[in-house]
Amino acid sequence: MNIKGIRGKSRSALPLLTFSSTTMNCSACGLPPIVNQRLKQCKRCKAAWYHGIECQKQHYPVHKHECRRLASSCSSVAAPVADNVTTTSGSTFVYDGCAKDSTHKVSPDGTFASKDERRQKLRIEYTHPLSECQVQEGKGRSLIATTELYIGCHPLNPVNKGISSDGWCQPLVPPVLMEEERQSRCSYCFKRLGDYRSSLSMHNYCSKQCKEKDENCYMEENAVQYITQMFPNAGHPSPTVLLCSRILHYSSKTPEVARKFEQLCFNTNDLSEKDKEEYLQVMRNCSKLLRFFDPYGEACDKARILTERPSEGYKFMSRIMLNGFTISTLDQQGVGIGIYPEASMINHSCRPNAVQSFYFFPPGDDEQERKSNVPMLQITMCQKVSAGEEITISYCDCASPTYKRRKELWEGYKFHCYCPW
Predict the structure, then answer these.
(1) How far apart are CA 174 and CA 170, in angstroms?
(2) Alpha helix locations (H) across 171-294?
(3) Would you state the pLDDT for residue 419?
């Protein structure tokens, strides 16, 4: 069984994008250039980039004062670019580790100290959260803006330990590739495979670094090998089974992972008999995998208990189904599934004010802030919101007719949407 109702599965109205960390985004909408297009630079300050005149007009009320100051202070030098320069509310600009009033560090003669400093990315040090989690009646956990947020800013910031300085959300456990992508993408960083190939049946890697970092590789490969020897027709486990086994394995080793997973919402009251049977089948397959993956560990015992106690198994699976994300590429092709706890509190709207995007980091690509190069998720505002307003994303295709959206949301998430759209 694959996750079918997972959020982000089909959202063509708001594109789910994939970038590398070197991608330059539009200063207005926070999104990268479309295929075969280069962003246009602000001619006055040369510190902002736009898709076109419409994005520039939209961003001008926010950018004009900074633009004038930059143009007057160093008109001959291009300032470093930050895709979230609009997140100045509740934040202080930091460059090269030192808080500055300006957006770049210059020497007394008005020039950059070195070319390396010119290339460095502007970082932001947050003084307080731009958003906070609140419980709303009938909705449960929700993400609420604590200050005015503009188009292009990232409401999730590193006040939370699970968020990096650029608003990247860490996954709860390493995400899992879709079955059809296992032979064409790296099992760890999700980048397309190059010349390097591993001689494994289910895991392939783009480099030796990714293979060494993936601690699940050999345990899962050995478990699958034993299963296929005992059950020749079993086949490889589905992505959902692998994700469940990783959650149980990491939860048994790390209390923080277990705590975050237990905090995720679930809904077992509206499950159909078909849903319940599918959930139990996933737990049986997960228990079978962990029997060879970690036979004497806590994860194997937990999987067996979830199988023997269906009500607990339903809760476990419901948390995954309701809070998971489909990891998508630039052309909205789903390539994997993962759980990002810091973003899971964001509710749905058919007229959302934010969009999620996914970053794929190849090995060695600015790994100073990241312990791993697994895919990360970022939330970007696509509409301006005031303090106290809820931040929402879309769980479905906003362009679909109402009856299709209602059906998809009920089958995947067990709720009825009453948003304005």
Answers:
(1) 9
(2) 208-213, 217-230, 239-253, 255-262, 273-293
(3) 76
Q: Which amino acid is at 419?
A: C
What distance in Å separates the CA atoms of residue 323 and residue 51, rounded to the nearest whole number?
32
At residue 400, does pLDDT exceed 90?
no
Q: How far is the first Cα of the chain from the last one, in angstroms, to the nearest whole number?
A: 32
Q: Identify the CA nearest to 412 among candidates 392, 396, 397.
A: 396
Phi/psi zone of residue 332: left (φ > 0), alpha (ψ -120 to 50 degrees), beta?
Answer: left
Distance CA 3, CA 1 (A): 7
What distance in Å separates the CA atoms of residue 70 and residue 47, rounded to the nearest whole number?
Answer: 8
Q: Which residue, 190, 141, 175, is CA-closest to 3?
A: 175
Strand order in the sheet with 123-126: 98-99, 91-95, 123-126
Distance CA(400)–CA(79), nearest Å, equals: 42
CA 131 to chain centre: 17
Looking at the predicted structure, is the pLDDT value of residue 85 above 50?
A: no
Of the candidates 314, 302, 386, 395, which has an alpha carbon nearest to the alpha carbon of residue 355?
395
In whole angstroms, give the CA distance from residue 322 to residue 313: 14
- For 63, phi then psi, to 5°, come to -95, -15
Residues 359-374, mean pLDDT to the nearest whole number: 66
Q: Give the pLDDT confidence of 124-159 residue by residue, as tens digits.
A: 455 567 888 888 776 778 889 988 888 888 888 755
Amino acid residing at 39: L
Contact 364/350 with Cβ under 8 angstroms?
no
Residue 236: both structure tokens together: 């490889």
**Amino acid letter, 101:** D
- Answer for the pair 276, 310: CB distance below 8 angstroms, yes or no: yes
What is the pTM assigned to this prediction?
A: 0.70
Domain ranges of the chain: 25-82+91-126, 194-322
